[in-house]
Amino acid sequence: MNPDSKGTILIVEDEQDLSDLLKEELEFYGYDVVAGFKFMDLFVKLDNQKFSCILLDLKLPGGAGTRVVDKIRANPSHLNFSTPVIITSAFVSPEVMDAYKTKIQGVLTKPYKIADILAHIDEAQGS
After folding, report:
1. 21 to each of 49, 65, 67, 68, 83, how far by Cα in Å?
2. What b/e sequence results for 91-124 when a residue is b if at least 16 CB atoms lie within 10 Å of its CB, and e otherwise?
3. Residue 29: what pLDDT?
4. pLDDT per position as a tens digit, 7-40
5. What is the Rg, in whole angstroms, of the alpha carbon atoms belonging to the chain?
6. Alpha carbon of 1 to those of 4, 91, 95, 107: distances in Å?
7. CA nearest 108: which of 80, 76, 86, 125?
8. Which of 19, 54, 84, 98 could disulfide-pair with 124, CB 3.0 to 4.6 Å?
9. Residue 69's CB: how many other CB atoms inside 10 A?
């Protein structure tokens, strides 16, 4: 980890081009970024590394993003139990919003701008 880093962001995104772009932009703004992996590898990462924020798409090959939220919020001793989660999805149903409103710290509907992501990360981290 970069000693001058603002924190480590986990990007969970099925669109590789968008994931790469977000990674590049967030690194430019001083964050360390973990991105580009398969859905099942995600749970290993979450169990073994503390993140400062998670950017989470809901529709992923191999599983739903809501499973990620359910897993880390189910156990108060989980390494990422208190890590802010920001949903980044093209469509978020009212049912999902209602069910997860107390478990997530923000929602960004695609398409969005990097400034929106940065503002949500700052707000979620209490900056």
Report:
1. 22, 20, 25, 22, 22
2. ebeeebeeebeeebbbbbeeeeeeeebbebbeeb
3. 94
4. 999 999 888 888 899 999 999 999 999 997 777 7
5. 13
6. 9, 33, 38, 27
7. 86
8. 84
9. 20
Token readout for 60 is 């992923």
- Burial, 88: exposed, middle or buried (Cβ in 10 Å; 0-12, 13-18, 19+)? buried
- 76 burial (CB, 10 Å; 0-12 / 13-18 / 19+) is exposed
d(CA 43, CA 29): 26
Residue found under tokens 């739903």: 64
The answer to whether the beta carbons of residues 33 and 20 sit under 8 Å apart is no
**Which residue matches tokens 């999805």?**
89
Hey, what are 37's tokens? 């992996």
The owner of tokens 């590898």 is: 41
